[in-house]
Amino acid sequence: MFLEAEVLTALNIGEAVSTKISTLNELKKHVEKRLLENKLRDFIYANPWIISPEWERFAKEISLTSVIKKAGVDNFPDEIYKGRVDMVLGSGSQLVVLEFMRPGLELDKDHLNRFDDYIITIKSSLDSQTGVTPTGDKYTVVAGYLIADNEKQTAANTMKIKQLSENRKYAWTWDTLIGRALKQWEEFLEILKKRNPNDDRIKNLK
Length: 206
What we know:
This protein has helices at 2-32, 37-46, 65-75, 78-81, 109-127, 155-165, 174-195, 200-203; strands at 59-60, 85-91, 94-100, 106-107, 141-148, 150-151, 169-173. By secondary structure, it is of the alpha/beta class. It has a five-stranded mixed sheet, with helices on both faces. A hairpin with a 2-residue loop joins strand 2 (85-91) and strand 3 (94-100). Helix 1 (2-32) runs antiparallel to helix 7.
């Protein structure tokens, strides 16, 4: 009875993961066709798991609206980032800030530098505050994501993106965003299958 309960739990999780992989594949098709960009961003806002499985425990953070807005005004001139979308998520002491660049804008070194300053500004502001999380704690870990249609393939940009990632600042294209999410969920599903090698129901999950 206990073994069957364990398998059924794994099967339910596996079916949920399989559905998420299918959803991501559909989103990937829309990105490739450059369709529904606003809806894609709205979907990510409502379903943060798309970035990473561990993001399922993150929720929208609205108490920092003024902090985020001021940092955006200070670092993003309207002529460059007009139409961009902010997305802020929190979990415990962790804060995640996502910036979606205006569709069609190519990610270059100037954008990367401004994004770097933007996250530094937010982090500095939070460091000077107390009781900023819903539970009254401080946000001590801040990660930033800049999502663009594409990027300029230069050695300088590649090096800058690498340096940013070492400090929890990630500059990704839509393809990278969805590709990484797909890989993580597919690996998650494979682990479930390996843990239950003798159950055909789990083995046959796609």
